[in-house]
Amino acid sequence: MEIHPQDEVLERLARTGGEADPRLLRHLSGCPRCRTRLAGLRLREGEPAPVVRLRRGSDLAYDDAFDRSLRIAQGWDAALRRERSEAPGLLAELAAHSPEQCEILLGNGHRFHRWGLAELLVERSLEESIRVPERGEHLARLALRVADLVEEDLYGAARLEDLRARAWAHVGNARRIRSDLRGAQRAFERAWEHLQEGTQDLFERAIVSDLQASLLRDQRRFSEASRLLGRAISMFLELGERHRAGRSLVNRATVCHHAGSPESGIPLLQRALELIEPAQESRLLLIARHNLVFYLASSGRFLEARRAYREALPLYRDFPDAWTQNRRRWVQGKIALGLGQPEQAEALFLAARDGFLAEEIPYDTALVSLELAVLYAREGRTAELKRLAAEMMPIFASRQIHREALAALAFFRQAVESEHAGVEAVTRVSEYLRKARHAPELRFPGDSG
Fold first, then answer.
1. Which of 165, 170, 375, 393 could pair with 194 as two cysteines, CB 3.0-4.6 Å apart?
2. Are 42 and 109 contained in the same domain?
3. Beta-ladder partners of 85
4. Does the residue 400 lie in any domain?
5. For the chain, what is the radius of gyration of the CA atoms?
6. Residue that finishes a domain, picked among 90, 112, 131
């Protein structure tokens, strides 16, 4: 795996010039990514271009190679800046058309054949996949189409392979989110095939590793997911990509939660909060803070969870969307129940449940309904428990919940009707649903154990 010079090495070369190590020049001559980084530093407004000298006794060919590489990098950097500034307008134009019309536009419109547009499509794919995974996959596939149309002589075949790898990784991520795990696996296999033909850039490998770890997590391959994320975090930090390392730490904490150990994710989230740049991705900061509150509450550390919740309140207010507010009410209800405030907890759970129902998110509806069931079971409120169970089955039977999950809910209803639904039975159903969310083949244990 190739090691790239650290930022301070390139900054010193860009700002002051001075003697350059031939090994550094050799690396710059063959590494488009580092040439671009150096060119960007040299092109800052008002900074003079330094004179770069070779160490005594070095081959003059390295000096020529450096100048040639830098000229290429400067031209490439200027073109990329222009393309990135034009990309939002091009994307808005594509967004106004159907997928079929987009294909026609791309085929006939040379102005769409831009690296900057492909890059932006990949970035937007990640954002859209969270809300509408089908839309996220569509954007990633558009990026693949644009990558096939970009001028290879300008950017280089290897760099285009890197771009295709990143786009395929986002296709895989979108498929994972909509629970098409086999399709996601095939997409990640394609991503790694393209990476093998690419520049072997550490940054690109880290991005694909981070996204694939989410698939491994949903496949319940928790140890593999954690190891892959550990490598991604190390690569991002080595490259000075602190924000991306913070994002991978959030992902690694989520792996701990899915593995049944939310407490193990707490220090990872605390470290992530030190690395995340709020101005760069404020929603990621919200997710990290929300998950910290949720994991503290799930670990029984309710006073700490309340304190973390109060710290997160300004962020919650910045995101008034239903997705955020339903989860805020849910975790606030968990804290209230843990602190001995059942009336407040009940009101919050009911509000969250109704919100999830309105958004047609059946799994979260089921999980927060079971939080309510725990509350009713603890207080011996049999009538409310029976009403809740009777309401749940027709709701979930009419939605796309897999057969084993319905079996778990049927077991819950039968236990309630026979008045054998204590906290232990409700917890068993809740734990099963959490594990089976992305593993529909996982069988519900029923009356066993």
1. 165
2. no
3. none
4. yes
5. 26
6. 90
| End-to-end Cα spacing for the chain | 49
Residue 303: CB atoms within 10 A of its CB come to 11
CA distance 3 to 9: 13
| CA distance linking residue 439 with residue 176, whole number of Å | 11
Closest listed residue to residue 8, CA positions, set 36, 30, 38: 38
Which helix (DSSP H) or strand (DSSP E) does residue 18 occupy? strand 18-20
Select, from the ranges 109-118, 176-185, 364-373, the one with the highest average predicted confidence (pLDDT).
Answer: 176-185
Say if strands 52-54 and 18-20 run parallel, antiparallel, or are unpaired: parallel
Neighbours of 364 (CB within 10 A): 20
CB 9 within 8 A of CB 34: no
Shared domain for 83 and 128, answered yes or no, is no
Q: Which helix (H) or strand (E) covers residue 53, if one does?
A: strand 52-54
Element (H, E) at 54: strand 52-54
* pLDDT, position 47: 42
Note the Cα 148 to chain centre separation in Å. 25
State which residues form the domain around 157.
97-200
DSSP codes joined into one string, 308-321? HHHHHHHHHHH--S
Measured from the Cβ of residue 173, the count of other Cβ atoms closer than 10 Å reads 26
Please give the Cα distance from 356 to 366 (Å, whole number).
9
Distance CA 168, CA 192 (A): 9
The string of DSSP letters for 216-263 reads HHHTT-HHHHHHHHHHHHHHHHHTT-HHHHHHHHHHHHHHHHHTT-HH
Q: What pTM does this model have?
A: 0.75
Looking at every residue in the chain, the average pLDDT score rounds to 81
Decide if pLDDT at 45 tops 50: no
What is the Cα–Cα distance from 143 to 110, expressed in whole angstroms?
15
For 9-41, the pLDDT digits (tens) are 666 665 544 445 555 655 665 565 666 566 555
Q: How far apart are CA 225 and CA 233, in angstroms?
A: 12
Residues 139 and 55 both lie in one domain: no
Q: For residues 304 and 299, what is the distance between their CA atoms, to the nearest angstrom? A: 10
Q: Provide the token pair at 219.
A: 């496949």
Please name every residue paired with 26 in a beta bridge, in sequence order, or none if there are none: none
pLDDT tens profile 297-316: 999 999 999 999 999 999 99
| Rounded-to-integer distance, Cα 88 and Cα 123, Å | 11
Amino acid residing at 228: L
